[in-house]
């Protein structure tokens, strides 16, 4: 291999290493602010929330979609730090519900006591 091409390879390696170092810095404090908010969907199907538990980050939203042919609600439990209560007719969806703060937020359906779920924000 001619000497010049070895040098080129080394140079490419250094550029790559710098990019990785910058990437490492970007993952430090402040990175969360630049992360774009996610929107997660929970389905209401067969009288269950699917998935039963979702994990999101502060600032993300959850939308519930009713795939059943009966009414459901997504209703925060009494002890939940964030409160919401939305009726969802068959085939309908909720607006995105924003979760700005970290925590564990249990919820249920008002019509089906066994229909429960949890939004975990961390
Ligand atoms: Cu229900």
TrEMBL record:
Residues of the EfeO-type cupredoxin-like domain: 24-121
Keyword Signal: yes
Signal peptide residues on this chain, from the entry's feature table: 1-32
Chief subcellular location: periplasm
Keywords of this entry: Electron transport, Periplasm, Signal, Transport
SUPFAM superfamilies for this protein: Cupredoxins
PROSITE patterns (alphabetical): TAT
Keyword Electron transport: yes
Compartments, as annotated in UniProt: Periplasm
Gene3D superfamilies, per database record: Cupredoxins - blue copper proteins
Record's protein name: Cupredoxin domain-containing protein
Organism lineage string: Bacteria, Bacillati, Actinomycetota, Actinomycetes, Kitasatosporales
């Amino acid at each position: 291999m001619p000497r010049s091409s070895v040098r080129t390879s080394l140079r490419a390696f250094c550029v790559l290493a710098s990019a990785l170092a910058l990437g490492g810095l970007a993952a430090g404090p402040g990175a969360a602010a630049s992360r774009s908010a996610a929107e997660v969907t929970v389905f209401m199907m067969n009288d269950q929330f699917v998935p039963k538990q979702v994990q999101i980050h502060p600032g993300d939203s959850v939308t519930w979609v009713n795939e059943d042919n009966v009414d459901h609600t997504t209703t925060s439990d009494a002890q939940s730090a964030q409160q919401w209560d939305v009726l969802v007719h068959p085939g309908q969806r909720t607006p995105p519900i924003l979760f700005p703060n970290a925590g564990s937020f249990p919820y249920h359906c008002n019509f089906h006591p066994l229909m429960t779920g949890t939004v975990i924000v961390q």
